[in-house]
Amino acid sequence: MLGPVILAASRSDKMRRFVSAAPGTKQVVDRFIAGETVDQVVPIVEDAADKGLEVTLDVVGEDITTPAQAEAARDAYLELVERLKDLDLGPRAEMSVKLSMFGQALEGGHELALANVRPVVEAAAAIGTTVTLDAEDHTTLDSMFAIHEELRKDVPQTGCVIQSYLFRTEDDARRLSAAGSRVRIVKGAYKEPASVAYQDKAEIDKAYVRITRILMEGEGYPMIGSHDPRLIAIAQELGRRAGRKLDEYEFQMLYGIRSEEHVRLAAEGHRMRVYTAYGTDWYGYFMRRLAEKPANLLFFGRSILTKG
């Protein structure tokens, strides 16, 4: 399977140097990464709003090794909040954050990540938008869920992500599907051992459907993160059976993937949110997108062999 190989490459400094230097890399990265700066990403938010779409913005970068780097990540999100406020784009753009960027893996990381992410969550709420805590590998999840619970005491609309390939997730979904919650369901993109996660695609998809049903039948706000037409159709049917209106849940897809489907779902009356990453530390994010859909590797391979 290509996915685990690509994920291993995402942690290789040698592969990072090779990919970064390859002549066609920029062409491919630009397909998935909206830009390097806030100024570059703002027009994309405005264009999405014009098309009836919403976005969630992710400042990429996870290799945090010092508290100062974690504070810099916090400040990058606070800068983003200020720009969205100035342009009155808050209601169209939420933010997604990985707690690893806020120092979660450092000594005292749980408290450090909470202290760094709290001002971002509060600033987002002040301009009428929200923050969703992205899920990372299974060893980080108890901390993430505890931080999520703590943040919701003051900002109850703070969202979180759950991953269908983990055995624990159905129980997490039941716990999180209460009134006022916002939960994004994805398949999962980290290499996890067979002791904690399904390894077979069919089993992951079955779990995704079971978890989506739990969220749709709950009292919270489900966010369906998928590009799979079959899972999208199933989610629509589960929403209908649960008596949900089209604005009582949403679909989310990645920037640069199935863009025509973004517009089609919005035109049908669904809330459609585009997960839009930007920043200079793009490598880990980019490699996980390849791991999620190895067919993208063919496009990438052709591009890096192209001169100039």
UniProtKB/TrEMBL annotation:
The reaction(s) this protein catalyses: L-proline + a quinone = (S)-1-pyrroline-5-carboxylate + a quinol + H(+)
Top-level enzyme category: oxidoreductase
EC number of the protein: 1.5.5.2
Binding site for substrate: 98, 288-289
Record text on cofactor binding: Binds 1 FAD per subunit.
Binding site for FAD: 163, 187-189, 201, 226-227
Obligatory cofactor(s): FAD
GO term, biological process aspect, one: L-proline catabolic process to L-glutamate
Pathway as given in its UniProt record: Amino-acid degradation; L-proline degradation into L-glutamate; L-glutamate from L-proline: step 1/2
Keywords: FAD, Flavoprotein, Nucleotide-binding, Oxidoreductase, Proline metabolism
A Pfam cross-reference name: Pro_dh
Domain Proline dehydrogenase as annotated: residue spans: 45-298
InterPro entries reported for this sequence: FAD-linked_oxidoreductase-like, PRODH_bac_arc, Proline_DH_dom, Proline_oxidase
GO molecular function: nucleotide binding; proline dehydrogenase activity
The protein, known as: proline dehydrogenase
